[in-house]
Every structure is written in C-alpha cells, then in structure tokens.
Amino acid sequence: MNNNMNNNEVALNIDGLQIKANKGITILQAALENNIYIPNLCYSPYLKPGGACRLCMVEIDDGRLVTSCETPVEQGMNVVTENSKINNVRKLVAELLIANHEVDCLTCAKNDHCKLQEIAAYLGIEKEKLGNLRRVLFEIPKDTSNPFFDRDLGKCILCGICVRICRDILGVSAIDFGFRGYETRITTFSDKPILESSCVSCGECVVGCPVGALVPKNTLQPSREVKTICPYCGVGCGIYLGVRGNTIVNVRGDSDNPVNKGNLCVKGRFGYNFINHPKRLTTPLIKRNGKFIEVTWDEALDYIARNISKYVGDSFAAIASAKCSNEENYVFQKFTRAVMGTNNIDHCARLCHVSTVAGLGKTLGSGAMTNTIAEIADSACIFAIGTNTTSTHPITALGIIKAVQNGGKLIVANPREIDLCRHADIWLQHCPGTDVVLLMGMMRQIVDRELFDSSFVNDRCENFNLFKKSLREFDLDSVEKITGVNKDKIIEAAKTFASSKTASILYSMGITQHSHGTDNVIAVSNLALLTGNIGKPSAGVNPLRGQNNVQGSCDMGCLPDVYPGYQSVEDYKILEKFQRAWDCKLNKSSGLTLPQIIESAHDGKIRAMYIVGENLILSEPNSSHVIESLEKLEFAVVQDIFLTETALLADVVLPACTFAERDGTFTNTERRVQLFQRAIKPLGSSKPDWWITCEISKRLGAKGFDFHNTKEILEEIASLTPIYGGIFYDRLEKGGLQWPCSDAEDNGTSILHMNQFATENGKGKFLPLSYKPSAELPDNEYPFILTTGRSLYQYHTGTMTRMVEGLNKLYGHDFVEINPKDASDLDINHDEFVRVISRRGEVKAKAKLTDALPKGVIFMTFHFAETPTNILTNSAMDPISNTPELKFCAVKIEKDTE
Amino acid sequence: MGKDLREILSFYKGDRSNLIPILQDIQANFGYLPENAILEISKFTKIPESEIYGVATFYAQFRFTPIGKKHIMVCEGTACHVKGADQIMEGIERYLDIKEGETTPDLECSLESVACLGCCALAPCAMVNEKVESNLTLKDIKKLFSKNSK
Description:
Number of strands of chain A: 37
CATH class of the largest domain in chain A: Alpha Beta
Number of domains of chain B: 2
Shape of chain A: globular
Largest sheet of chain B: 4 strands, mixed
Strand order of the largest sheet of chain A: 14-13-27-26-25-15-16
Strand content of chain B: 5-15%
Strand order of the largest sheet of chain B: 2-1-3-4
Oligomer: heterodimer
Radius of gyration of chain A: 29 Å
C-alpha cells in the first residue's frame, strides 16, 4: 500500500481499516471521505473545527478520547470510532441535547434531514432515560422578524455553526453566544429580533444549521432541481433552482461551482419570487389610442416588422441588455447591424464599465478582470477603491473577508464608511471625485521611496518616464489638500500596497462613473503596473462588473464601435469578415453611444428604438430629459419581463422570459462563460429574447436567423469571435470556461497578461495623468455633493427585486443619507422627509442621519421609482467612454414643509 | 461619573484585551452599558458588537438598562427565599409594572435581584439605594415608594 503513496499522504487505521488521507486533514474528515460515519453536530466542511458538541469523540493509540473533528491524522495512527467508553460519552451528550430539545419532529421543517435525528437513530436513544435529564425549558419566543427565515431557539443545540459562519465566512458577526452559563443562547446584539441586527439575511446560517433552529420561511420541498446560474450580479454564482410544478420554490448554492462554492447572498438565495410573479408580462401589447391592447405574437411581430422597416439605417437605435444571454445579445447586435444597417447599439455597460474597457484597453490591451474571484482570498494585500463590495458583490466580498482572516492587508478607499471599513487596516476617506489625485499621490510615494518593481517596469512596460514626470504635480501637501486624506495615511497605504508580495486592486462604479472615469481606470492600471502586480496569481486589476452578463454583452459587441470579441467596426478586414459571414453589407462607421442615442432622440435624429430589458428612465442620469427623448420617438419597442417605467412609453411591449425559462450562457465578471438552463416552461406566452429577435429579422426578409436553439448561436459566436473560439455547449456542460479560449483544445485563461500584455506590442503602457475636478462642483446655491450607490437588498432599477416582498421588507424605500452635523445645521431630524434639489430636478425622501458620510456629502440609491434619484444626477460624461458622472453632482437639501 | 465616552476610550489602546476594563469604566460612568457605547467600543476595538454583548451578558456586574433614581435590590438569598422573597419580588414587579432587571420608563425606579444582602436576620429584605429595608411584607411595598425618603 505504501508503494503508491505520495508525500502529502499518510496511512492510518480506522476500526481496523487501512486508509490513506491527505496530511493536515482531521480524523473526522478522513473517516467521512472513506464513508465511515462518526456522529457529529458542530462540524461543517466549510469551517474551522469547533470541537463543541463532543459527539465525534474517538479513541486513539494511547487510549485517550479525542475530538476527531480537531485532531489531525498522523502516519500509522490507530483510531477506534466505537467502543463502550466512547458510547457512554456520546450517549450522555446526545441524551442531554435531546432532553432539552423541543421534540416536535413531524411538524419541524428539518424533519428527515436533521442531524440530531440522525444521531438519535444512530446511538439508539431511549425515551425513558430522557425524563431525568430534562431541565426547565426556557420559553424563548420564536423570532419570525426576518422575511426569509425563522429562528426557534427552543430547538437550538448550541453547536455554534451559525455563529462561526456569520463571523468566519461572512465577516458580519450578527450573532454570538450570549448569557453564557445555564441560560446560554445564541443572541444578537442587545438580544433584539434578528431583523434589527446587523444580519445581512444571506441565509448561510440557515443552510448550516443541523437542526430546526434556523429554517427558511418557505419550507416547500422541490420535486426536481435544475442547475443554473444566478441572474443578479456579475459574480455569476452557480445555483440549483428548486422546482415544483411550474413554480420555483427555492434556490440553493451549487457547491461545485468554483465561483461561489455553494455560498449565496440574500438576493441569490431568496430573491426568486419575481419569476412566477403575477405581474409578469405574458402577452404582447400594442398601444392603441394611448392604451395597451393584448395581441397575439403574429400581430405584434408583423406590426413591428411593418413599422421598424421604415427606419433602416442610422435613424434606428438598439439598446441591448446585460441581463440577456450571450446568444441573445449576439443575435440582437447581428439584427441591428445586418438587418437595420446601423451600429447604433449600446447597453447599460455605458453607464458602468465602458470606462474600464476604454482605459484598460489602452494600458493593458483588455478591459476585464485580470484575475479570478477565487484568487482574492490569497492576496497579501487588497486595495478596494470605489467598490462597496459587501453590498454589490457579496460573494466576491467573502474572498476579501477570507484574505483578511488569512492575514492579508485590506486598504479601503471610499468617501463613505462602507461595511468593508470595519475589516480594513487602512481606510482612506477621500473626497468624492479625487481618485486620480489619491492614486497618483500614492504612486508618487512609491516612486520617491523606490518601492516600485523596477524590473517589471523595465521589462514589461513602456512610457514610464513620461508617467513619472506627471507625478510631480502630486506632492503630499497638494494631495492631502485635494483629497482630504491625511498624509501619513497616504504614505502608509502606498507602503503597504507596494511592499506586499501580491496586491490585488478591486474597483467598481466609484472609479468609473465620473466625468474622468477613464482617467481613474488608468490611474488604477498605473498603480498595478508600477508595483508589478499584473500577470501573477492573487494580484491584478479587477473591475467588478455589475450585471450578470454585462461582461458578455460587451464581449458580444453590443457596443457601437466593436463587433463580437472587441473587433473594431472600422477595421476594413474585420468588416469584410462579418460581411462574408452574415452575407450582407455592413455600416462602416461606429454608431452612437447610449447618451448620444438619447440626445439624438431628443433632437429627432433617432426616430425608432428597440429596447431590450433596460429601464432607462431610472438608470440614466437626468431622467426628465430621458423621458422627453423617449416620448419624441416615432416608434419604440420595449421587451422586458415586467411593464417597467420605460415600457409604459413604448408603442409595442413584448413579454420576454426570465433566466429560469430559457437556456444560454452568461459571462461573469472574471470572464467565465457559464451555462444556464431552463427550469420551467415560459410563463404565459412569454418568449426567449433570441427567438423574438430572430422572428422580427425573418419577417424583414433577413437571412441567417434560422437558429433552432442557443447551442447553434453559440457555435456561430465561436466561429466569428476569437476570444470565444473554443467555447461550445458540450464543453460548458462540464463547467465554465474563461476567455480568451481560442479553440477546442484551449482550456481558457484564468490570469491575463502572464507573459505579455494584450496590447499591440505586448507591453503594459503607463499613461501620465493630471487632476480634473468633477464637472459640477458644489457652490453657494447647491452646497452638497450627491453621490449615488446601491443597497444589498435591491438590484439596479428594482425590476426584479421590487417584486420580491421580503427584499422590500429589508430595504423598501430610499433614504437620503446625511451627516448628523449637516442635518442639525439644516434642522433636519432622522426619518423626516427632505427635498433634494439639483439644477435638473428634485426628489423627496426620508433623511437618515449617519456618521458614515463626511460633512458636505449626501448619499442615495437609485433603485426606486418613487424616489428617482437620477432626476438629480448630472449627464456630464467622460469624453472617452461617455460614462455619465453618476457619482457626483451638486445639490441642495431642504426640510420638506408640506 | 462625568467622563464622556471618547474620554474613556482615550485611556485605552483598543486591543481586544482592553474590552472588560472598558466595559467596567463605562458602567462606572454611565451606570449601565448604553447601546451606542457598545457600538463605539466595537468600532474602537474592532470586536463585533454581538461578541461584546456576549461577553457582557456573561458577567452579572454589567447591566444594559440605566438604573433608576431608586434602585431596588431584592434579596433572594436562602433566608429571604424561605421568608417569601419571591412574593416580594412579584409584588414590586406588579407595583412598578416592570420586570426584574428593568427600569421604569420615567427612570424613577429600577429593580433587580441579588443573591444575599448579608442581613438574613431581617429577611425578607431589600436594598433601596444605600438603605436596607427589612422584614418586608406585601403591604410595605406601597410605603416603600410613597415615602419621600431617598
């Protein structure tokens, strides 16, 4: 046996059975791996050993009883899992637990998958013995405050799994042991209902609870499960949809998925009720005399074909959706280019990460996350700038928490005291809009102190000297003055970042949504190049993308200047290739970007629009202007799952399917293309988006839209898109693939720029930068800075999450967050209505006084149609990416006297 | 008494090991552990507030509600127990309409039980602020509060 053992293994003997186990694992793990059951309650494969329940006791060579969950395997060890000595201990422990457990099994939601039941059965607990052990049960009322799960402490066995999950995996620590002693129980801070605690409702503790103390509110068991991908943010977690009939009844994390490893956030786990929601659009609607009339698909499609054919050319614009699959976006841009003869196609990436695509495209040659989410946990230093990761990408945030627990340093740069600040070693609270100054200030310190990676800079980069010259402007005094960050902190952050073995930068909208967003991105890229943190594991420049398929929609060419795979529309050779493949003449000039499309609609140049799955009225800056523009259109088609604010303005509304009713692929933020699968049949007569686009194209006499399924579409994508060249359905069935993946032999690329950059000459490019203030600075009339963001419990414009009752209970209306000192100056009290006024409009919302914001800055989300924050925001945009400055505008605040 | 929260915290480094001395200091100054103080300690020491609460609830010395102007400690030691301390406690609870460990909303009275006041000969007894009230009967309860004494 020893002959074929490798160095990482040890051989041991459990109950006379010779087994091999990896070094470092525990006896319990080794036993379970070899299908040997040892009773256990407080063990979870995802947690460090707790050693609390004392049920997993085994006897080792010296006759001692040890907790097998805590004792590592050793070469030659002899383990006995059961004898009378062990049984005595186990039985007493189990009897004590059961005696004081509310035994109500048949009506308990955990019946049949309760670990205490399993143990009782295994050990053979006798009822007669229990009576003596029973103490007076404390009457603790059930905590039903959370909309998604209940806590029944009467059934709690104090294994501590929930406490450890909340602390060690989530970094939230909403619960802990309290009142230790005779009355020990799991408690929140101040013993309040869980809803009022810092709980983030992710439900991880509910999954981890071995008994019925934590159970979901909805306890319906599914009749079948379908493996698919979560439809919310860009992390792209693997999930199983639980289906009963044609209804989704639950969601559980897919522990085999490398992205989330089974973890889920509140939206992913509990936010599925929008799928079977009664308000779903189920029939096509045509507006006649100002009213929507239900029609058949044939009527709607014929009507669209008849009308839309009048606008072939540049008077037409298409808005794609980052919620749609790669296949759907591919078909949609093909329709726009090949059938409608225009490159006027864009989507919501314009509002978020086109600055990234533009900035990183210039410096690194590829505008996507350079590394993977899984690597974050091993970073020696994480620099999170302009990202509220725990709210917007909760599963990515778990990696940050893990990195911190592994001893990694965390630097957070954010004007708001976000949740991550609690875990940060350094928090840089810079003024909104001063990111370039902060980053350049740090880089100046790194260069002055010679902490940069000179061999990386010399061998792999270019343009360093010009960049170095531009650092002159950023001396500590000026940087401190502009950013408001103390000099020492800047030095400390610079030193920490530069001296870490691996340093990973994570960023999001706080970097990109500025009138100098591309500059911000370039500054981030400069920092990574300077410190040699690109092309190696657990480092890199990592833009966290927002929508589930925003990476894919960009990859698929739903942008006005590129075909799928970022192939320029203005490159003659590429044009030829697509003309040949699609058998048509294509428009040679780049189209309009989203803000330009809206502007052109306002000017009457764009006269027809086809909008898929986007709620422009809530998502664009300066909403009133957007409404005017849309109203001016001669013909507008909106395709969505609900009748959104934007759909109300359309001439035709088409009912699309949700992700649960169709198949396809999504590309997550780390370039991983993953398969999602149909779980239920489409609701009503709703249809997959690709089918709708193909039907319209065919009615317009176009060729090349005879797809029977999404598999065929993906094949066409692979044939025309080099970075997707090796991505096929049958491969994805075995697991996701990260592009670039050039052919069927290529297993994809997890880390970009390993040996050379994707730029033309293979070098990483430094770019000099200078400070550009935000477009609309506060003045006497509008003295406050409004910065916008997101809540964990809502998603984008709320089209999906507003339909989930529980999420609205957790965060159901918007607040204006304001510093208490500002509030007292304005005589504003907590929870009082205020009016927020900018040059473009006003919004009314309740004030929330919080120290999380510095004086002079207020914060709002944009999820709610009732408080359409984007009425206030400025449409001033980045000149290169056209991304609007959603993170900064000047406002004034008044007490609402009405 | 009299130090504010920031002043108290300024004496400490913010290590985990400072937690119990900080809690004691705060209780000495405020008479109890106010919620916002625990939240501040949490920020200062980077110990989650739930964990601080877990630690504080272990020790009988810490309280989470302010004490009233009249702080009543009902003795539940052996002698008092035998002489009906339970009824005295229930009687006071009923009279003040609060439970053991609570404070009246007007912050006039607070009530708690103690193990033994050490004057078993006077059982059942209770302490009102500094003064021992002895040989209590249910009838005495009303007097205890109507009296203008401290």
